[in-house]
Amino acid sequence: MLEVRGIDLAYGAARALRNVSLIAPIGAVTCILGRNGTGKTSLLRAVTGTHPVARGNILWQGEDITRLPSWERARRGIASVPQGRDIFPLLSVRENLETGFAVLPRRQRRIPDEVFELFPVLKTMLNRRGGDLSGGQQQQLAIARALVMRPRLLALDEPTEGIQPSIIKDIARVIAFLRDRGDMAILLVEQYFDFARDLAQSVAVMDRGEVVLSGPLASLDEGEVRRRLMV
Questions:
Q1: DSSP character at residue 204
Q2: Which residues share a beta bridge with 128?
Q3: How many CB atoms neighbour CB 102 within 10 A?
Q4: Would you give the DSSP letter of residue 28?
Q5: Smallest Cα–Cα separation from 5: which of 59, 63, 72?
Q6: Where do the domains of the chain lie, and which CATH numbers do they carry?
Q7: What is the rounded distance in angstroms from the CA atom of residue 165 to the CA atom of residue 69?
Q8: pLDDT digits (tens, 9 = 90+) for 23-69
Q9: Parallel, antiparallel, or unpaired for β 29-33 and 185-190?
Q10: What DSSP string runs through 89-153?
Q11: Whether this model's pTM surpasses 0.85
Q12: Are 119 and 144 in contact (CB under 8 A)?
């Protein structure tokens, strides 16, 4: 599992995270909920190694990875789907997917058939430039690129942001499939409780850089969770 133990994170003099702890087991979706600016993305950056923590520890499958660079974490099976997708607009869909090969041994450098089973639209667009895809298709491409890495931990930062409802349903179906397969921990950042409610086993609600409410979803008061997400 992933264990985050009392981490602080700062951008210069501004503290983004304060004493944040979290557990995300394999075979489950752990959802980080909160309004904009509450530290959700900063927590994912700490987990994936794209921003250092000032205090605390991050453990992945029992190993302390707090000081490992992001590429070493990727080699250990930690993959990220960032907010805003960050696909390569001038590369083809195939080339975008193949960037996931970088952390794999040579014998595994192929696009798994499962990627096209989960996102069949991408198979029809392999030679199209990433920048020519719709926003929803780019989000599917970003998730597919992460899956090419054969991750054991998949960190998704607001995958429904700016996406049409039909593709949101497709993304939810994929997340549910990966969860139920049972070999991956999924860390999902969301603003919308309804999307999280249908997928997550546990949630952590953040406010001002702190976890203010957490636990198994079934044990939490839905009204209290919604109240903390109101602007």
A1: E
A2: none
A3: 12
A4: S
A5: 59
A6: 2-229 (3.40.50.300)
A7: 36
A8: 999 999 999 999 888 999 999 999 999 999 999 999 999 999 999 99
A9: parallel
A10: TTSBHHHHHHGGGGGS-GGG-S--HHHHHH-HHHHTTTTSBGGGS-HHHHHHHHHHHHHHT--SE
A11: yes
A12: yes
Token pair recorded at residue 171: 């993304």
How many residues in total does the chain contain?
231
Residue type, 104: L
Pick from 157, 44, 49, 147: nearest CA to 101? 147
Q: Which amino acid is at 69?
A: P
Question: Of 185, 182, 186, whose CA–CA distance to 172 is shortest?
Answer: 186
Amino acid identity, position 167: I
Per-residue pLDDT reduced to its tens digit, 171-206: 999 999 999 999 999 999 998 888 888 899 999 999
What three-state secondary structure class fits 60?
strand
Q: Chain centroid to CA 148: how far? A: 14
List all residues 6 or more positions away from 61 whose beta carbon is below 8 Å from its beta carbon: 1, 76, 152
